[in-house]
Amino acid sequence: MPKKKKISKLKASHKNGLILIGLIIFLTLVLVFTKSHLAIKSAQDNKPVVTTKLPTSTPIPSPIQSFPTPTTVLLSPSPTIPTYKYILYKSLDEIHVHPKSTGFAISATLRDGKSWEIITNQDGFKYTWTIDNPNLVKPGYSAGSGCTQGIQPPCPDDHFSFYATQSGQTLIRVNVTKDGETVASTTFPLIIED
Q1: S-S: 188 plus which of 86, 125, 162, 172, CB 3.0-4.6 Å?
Q2: Average pLDDT along the chain
Q3: φ/ψ (deg, to 5) at 31
């Protein structure tokens, strides 16, 4: 066999091997992330604690070199624990800002507790936003409304904006009520650091 054909076969074989390695790593990551789940434990104060199972390195058979999978899981913000018929899907799980920043806004989308579909008709739902320690933010923080993601008027106050003024930690809370009863609630941890 001529030397050029042998080299081109080796290159094609090497390329196919790299594609196979990439495919194995990708499928392994998909499998690991698919099997990762949220374990919910109830603390003594009956507040749910959510833990995420992180992936571990996955060995690949010899002679292929093994590559560890990432230990940082990049997930979209998780919804609140469905203790009601509805859940609130948060724009962020945790907020990190600097004092005297130019401002920040978050949102909570009301969804069905089973299907996670957005509740498009929110007539009669009332959003109440509070901050546990309002001294950390500039007076005048406010809730705002917007009919986004297919939500029909009247638009709910599903957005909240604020300006951080000093370092510290607190919680921003949102409760959604209908006919005087709470139907969903969640918290946003706010960490303000220099």
Answers
A1: 172
A2: 73
A3: -65, -45
